């Protein structure tokens, strides 16, 4: 009985025999009511099911918010200086404003002065063309805005470039030659090019009509340079 007995480690015994096995998968917990099971989530989130779950249309907002109002377009000079009740925009308004009496008197005086200056420049243009030995000619440059019509005349056609230079660059029928003067108002406000566009086109048409009756110093019909869009068939005919 005095022989010592071997000592067995309780810790080793516990680690070998009493440690519970490690779980091989996560425990499954009960899901709250209404929550989809894992096997159903991938199916319910498929693109077709997501699209099907979207509302048919976006709900309308309440009428409490004020409507967004765009700023009113600035009035054109024809609406500012025209007299009487103007016809709606279009050919009828164009015909109405072609009559000088349908403009304010001070605006009509400005028109007369601008037309007089333009006719003088156009006369100088025609005299240069005639001195160059050319018969009375109607030059027409047709194209959209900023297409390069004027640049072509002043840089690539010598006969036109010389005549325009001698006439101060204004010896042509072009709405742009009137816009700077039309944009200035007695009140000091400056109108934009777009605001005076219709008015300048009306003056260009008037200038063309009056130049048809003009003669050079020799009595010949004058040459003219039309530098406009010429978008309508009536302008070409």
UniProtKB/TrEMBL annotation:
InterPro entries: P-loop_NTPase. Residues 1-76 are annotated as: Disordered. It comes from the Bacteria. Residues 1-13 have a biased composition (Polar residues). Residues 36-56 have a biased composition (Low complexity). This is Putative avirulence protein AvrRxo1. The lineage of its organism: Bacteria, Pseudomonadati, Pseudomonadota, Betaproteobacteria, Burkholderiales.
């Amino acid at each position: 009985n005095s022989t010592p007995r071997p000592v067995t480690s309780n810790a080793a015994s516990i680690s070998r025999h009493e440690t519970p096995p490690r779980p091989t998968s996560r425990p499954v917990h009960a899901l709250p009511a209404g929550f989809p099971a894992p096997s159903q989530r991938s199916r319910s989130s498929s693109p077709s099911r997501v699209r099907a779950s979207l509302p048919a249309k976006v709900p309308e907002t309440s009428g409490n918010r004020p409507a967004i109002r765009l700023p009113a377009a600035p009035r054109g000079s024809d609406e500012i200086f025209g007299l009487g009740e103007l016809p709606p925009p279009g050919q009828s308004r164009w015909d109405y404003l072609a009559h000088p009496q349908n403009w304010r008197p001070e605006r009509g005086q400005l028109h007369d002065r601008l037309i007089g200056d333009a006719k003088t420049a156009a006369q100088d243009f025609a005299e240069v063309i005639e001195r160059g030995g050319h018969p009375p000619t109607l030059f027409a440059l047709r194209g959209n805005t900023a297409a390069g019509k004027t640049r072509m005349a002043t840089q690539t056609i010598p006969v036109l470039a010389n005549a325009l230079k001698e006439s101060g660059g204004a010896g042509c029928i072009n709405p742009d030659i009137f816009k700077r003067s039309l944009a200035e108002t007695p009140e000091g406000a400056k109108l934009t090019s777009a605001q005076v566009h219709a008015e300048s086109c009306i003056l260009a048409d008037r200038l063309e009509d009056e130049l048809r009756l003009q003669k050079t110093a020799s009595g010949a019909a004058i040459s003219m340079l039309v530098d406009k869009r010429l978008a309508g068939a009536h302008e070409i005919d």
